[in-house]
Amino acid sequence: MIVEYTRYKITDERREQFLQAYEKAAEYLKYSPACLAYELSHRSEEPARYILRIESKSTDVHLKGFRGEVGFKPFFQLVQPFLYDLEEMQHYQLTEVVHRS
Questions:
Q1: DSSP state for residue 73 in the 8-state scheme
Q2: What own/partner pairs with CB < 8 Å and gap ≥ 24 does 89-98 have?
Q3: pLDDT band for position 52 (50/70/90)?
Q4: Which is nearest to 19 in space by CA: 73, 67, 78?
């Protein structure tokens, strides 16, 4: 499994617009066969920081699967205004060190 982490720094003035965009964009992730799970987290100690976490079967499935789907274009149009707020977008492979309850 692969996890994409996308870190954003969003100003107070853009926060509501950012959250509304991701509420709409999440629908495209939700119905994507390439996306196993996703979450958008907000850093409580530093309100401008957000992390989007997307789980996929592999980097190839994520990059070629989701980005090749018809839903990717409207998803990208929603989040594109925040590309300059992006601080990092990386793919990580999970290790065996994991626990879920």
A1: H
A2: 89/4, 89/5, 89/6, 89/7, 90/4, 90/5, 91/2, 91/3, 91/4, 91/59, 91/62, 92/2, 92/3, 92/4, 92/5, 93/1, 93/2, 93/3, 94/1, 94/2, 94/3
A3: very high
A4: 78
Q: Hey, where are the domains in the chain? A: 2-93
pLDDT at 27: 96
37 pLDDT more than 90: yes
How many angstroms separate the Cα of 72 from the Cα of each of 2, 19, 46, 49, 68?
18, 18, 30, 24, 7
CATH 3.40.50.300: does it fit domain 2-93? no
0.85 exceeded by pTM:
yes
C-alpha torsion 49→54→55→57, nearest 10: -140
